[in-house]
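Follow-up to my earlier ticket, as requested here are the two runs.
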Amino acid sequence: MAMGAVLSSSRAFASPLSASASSSSSAGKQHELKYSTSPHCRWVCSLVPGDRNGRQITRSTADAAQQPSVQQPLMSSSAMMRFCNASLKRRLLSKVECFLSSSDLVTSGWQKPRRRESLTGGSDNASCVARPEYRVPTRKRADCKAKFEMTGSPSDVPAEAVLPGEDAAWWQQFPKRWTIVVLCFFSFLLCNMDRVNMSIAILPMSAEYGWSPATVGLIQSSFFWGYLLTQILGGIWADRFGGKVVLGFGVVWWSIATMLTPVAAKLGLPFLLVVRAFMGIGEGVAMPAMNNILSKWIPVSERSRSLSLVYSGMYLGSVTGLAFSPFLISKFGWPSVFYAFGSLGSIWFALWQRKARSSPSEDPDISEDEKRHILGGNTVKEPVSSIPWRLILSKPPVWALIISHFCHNWGTFILLTWMPTYYNQVLKFNLTESGLLCVLPWLTMAVFANIGGWIADTLVAKGVSITNVRKIMQSIGFLGPAFFLTLLSKVRTPAMAVLCMACSQGSDAFSQSGLYSNHQDIGPRYAGVLLGLSNTAGVLAGVFGTAATGYILQKGSWDNVFQVAVILYIVGTVVWNVFSTGERILE
């Protein structure tokens, strides 16, 4: 920015004779020519050796002699003599302050200036300008133009005058914490795209290789072998090494496994089972790692909506995978699904490596204001070196998380896994209609998850305790599905049945602002481990619930299936409201 020299009460210049003597004695020395931007003084103000903070042109005396036009004063010598003699007393007492052009001098880069005690004399270094203390300002060229008349060419403006951050495009000013959230959203989008493509591709694959239904079931279940293995391990790794490293590893791992699926299928069934298990290993670390990194980046006032946005990526990933897989298979064959979806992971990983950090303290580009907003006065703690398992498992709120996660996922996995069969066998929809209607719950969950997140954060902002907010949102996530599943057994029309299923899944999505946000509330340092523990119970509920549903249907009816889910929803509601908390219990 431009810097001006402002004379407090008068212009502190030595007499022309002393100024002339000073100029002649400094011949051959390097000095800097500084122009005043004051409206009262349009002539050369000072020669300050080595000063870099002003708006300067550096020349040698010999060069100045060859180009006298640069140092020509704008006032005549006689006028200058009269002006100096009339205000000699005031000149000797005057103080010069250099300041930065700004509407807010408190936040400018210039601090209180040091004063020159002697403004007259024949010294070569005599100057009417003090050298102030300086720190990097946050101002832009427009401020300088608005306050002062610019003199000299724009190229003379020092580098500090134009700061790139001030004139940066909107995407460069986008909050860093929400950049992390958006990248996590796309990682979960890819996660479910790569997971659900097998449910579509398995049909032409089984026809090509002659697999029986039992073999198809074995292939589908092999994913969970690896997925269960890395739930807790992924949380431990994330808490020790950082969420960025672990989530990046997971995406690369499962993307490679996805692209290797066609090759493994051609080699034989054992190779395919191993690759699917490897894919589960990669996806198993995603949720614990994401939970760890968001616990460090997102303040509690934004926690619910950030997590809801990330988890909605899973729902939209299922919609995207179910929508594009049939098109790719019909045009390019079933291997194209795995190659196309798997290759997207490399694009995401490149952006992740460039933009993401495990915590705000590791990010060199984050602003101090945003860092203060995220930390909220809390100190940054060292990464976890050991996991206090006994302490964690002794806390009732931790067990409330584990039990509630089990109860929640029992009903959720049943609906998502058996829904096409229910549409076909009970509602008498054909397979095409069943496939299209399977997309509806995912879309409903994506929408209502974000609505629930905004409601939860609004309640927190209005002063409702975090404990009450988590209990309210999770109660909706339990009692809503319980109500609509009970209603489902009483409806008689397909349209009402589909509406009940959609409403059940929509209210279920409020759990993202309940139990899924609670890991970061009660123990942000161990958020990865806590989610690994509870999600292990959730995955087991999905595995056992899916198998139990088949057994129940052999002995009973769909009403019995829904009744079991409703009972578990009610149990989860009671446990959650009695034992859960939104306060931090693990330091």
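Run two:
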Amino acid sequence: MHGRPRKAPKPEDTAASAAKTEKLRALQSQLLHNHHNRIYTKEALEISAKLLEANPESYTAWNYRKLAVEHNLKQSESDPGSVKSILSEELKVVENSLKHNFKSYGAWHHRQWILSKGHSSVDHELQLLDRFQKADSRNFHAWNYRRFVAALKGISDEEELKYTTKLIEANFSNYSAWHNRSVLLSRLLQNKVKGSFPKEKVLVEEFEFVHQALFTDPDDQSGWFYHLWLLDQTVKSETPLLVSSWPAHGSDIIVSADGCLDGCAFSPFTSFISDAGTFPLILYFNEVVEGVSSSTVTVKSMFNANKDLIWEPLATNNSCAAQVWVTHLNVPDGKLHPSTAYPIDVHLGNPQGIVSSNGSHCSHPSQLAFTVSVQPLNSEHAEKQGGKEMILWRDVNFRFYDAHIQESSLIVYFDLLSIKKDHELAASKWHARILANEIALVRQLLSEIDCKIGKLTLARLLTAHDAMMPYMAPHSHKKVHFAEVLQLYGDLIELDPMHHRYYKEALSMTLFQQRVWEGCSLCAIGAGAAKKVTSNVENLLKHCCHHRVSSSSSVSNSTCLRLNNLSLSRIGCVKHLLWVQMLDLSRNELRSIDGLEALQLLSFLNLSHNKLSSFTALQPLRLLKLLKVLDISYNEIGAHPIDTRRYLCSSPLSHTVGSDWNFNEFVPEDAKVTNYWEAFAIFRGLNLTQLDIVGNAVTDEKFKPFLFKVLPTLKWLDGEELH
């Protein structure tokens, strides 16, 4: 196990193993006979005890003994002494089994079941646990059982915290003790128990405690993992917060019902073309929440009554909780004056109803205010829209913004995108102090010893520090340690090639965030190592381009955010990209597009030349109702015999499939069902007019007719117009 080479068994070992197998078969046969015939005599119980002593993993034997205990207890209800004797005997059987294998799931669960009866002494359990934890201090079964016993005995979290201190001081490598410490401290901090408040004081003390382990043995990972947990406690908010929205607070939105924005001051951030008679209102929280509804969020506008709004979670797993929520406001059909800006106010009036996954309530009210101007329908322009041209993603089809677009306007808009709170500014001061101190200490350690996990921790600390900058300096978007973080991840990819994909994803997240904030210009990353980076805010314009198609004014008005050729393997936080309607992520190394479901305005998407291996990797697309153009050409869809993401997508036999799916009507008779089912589940319901899928292993001559049926709105497929 765990990399140990197998050795050929000796003849005497083979003979002993055969004898043991024969004995177990005989005991198993007798047990099953007694089980089926409900025989619970003393002799029958002895047989099961012998079997469990030899093989504690026999779940059938443990279940048989539960039935026997229930049967015997029912017959001895009037005799407390007999009840105690039955349960004591059961505890002895479990203890004997644990001596043979103290990591047996069945044995520990059976012992917990016995104690839950309430007739046994708990004091002996702590003594037993001490013996087992001395034999193996990292036995997580024993630690789980200890938490159960502590709750049963009423031992306080403070006392248990002292116990973890004792074990950690005896052995800094006791990962399970560190883990239990994090569990206990989480409860103490959440409940603000005396001595565990304020949070800043507790975290400072814990950082000082873990420093002893890090400097004593820097190569041991146990302390580093606890340090990572402390870092997470330092940077995360204690309650859910609204951090971004579209439309942004203070913005002036222009909505066109026919794609004509002529005569309007066009902006990629504040102009929206709607052919559905609605426009989305998007709320982006700092963590997954549930409870967003018309009773917790009040929207005041002339377009809709608040009670009529339906809020939907943007979750790919059909969950009722999500980090991003959306509702849709109607664009009135009547005549509205295009020069009039209609105010809309959004207020989280009952934030206590919005709850995170850990039970924390959104305790800070938030309010948004923006205006909407509606461009009236132009019938002459609408007639011309029937001849839209195919979207091409070539460089010649894009042109950069004109020089008159001021850098300051971009900064102002990015400030609008972030919803900042006064209490966050006050809290971030002590956060920044802790991070600065930890950065200095880890740098000191790395100056004395070359440590991979130390480099990883430093990269995380620097990233967390840079994430604090917008709160500490509201008008600063500069990532101070960006180049150093890239260098650290580049070094780790070379030092630890076995985990290169993990480091590559972390590097990708860093690059993505930097491009979003500053549009940095990456000069070279060779073999995963960052060579030279230059960045400033005006470089953002190098990634925002006008898409140019001669005969379609709606498309020529589209602003494309081009994040292609960046070696991205993962998409980071998109809270500042909610305005994007056209996105180019081609020629990267993406294996997943998780996160794109938040971009509810997205109409044009280029994912060509990536490493997407299945249709299930495209699951977020099902939530993009405005998506019209999709390019997934030259990926790896269908090239891998084993799709590790397939479980994310409903199967034809799943009970979640609706009766209206009629899958068999779309698939050729002799086709491989799995190839078509996943495509059907993803594309069904989308209103794509253009799709490029060439260059994937899954496509063949039967696949195109299948797509025509699933996507009846399709006008172009793989560069060819359909007739």
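The only thing I checked on run two: The longest helix spans residues 422-448. Let me know what else you need.
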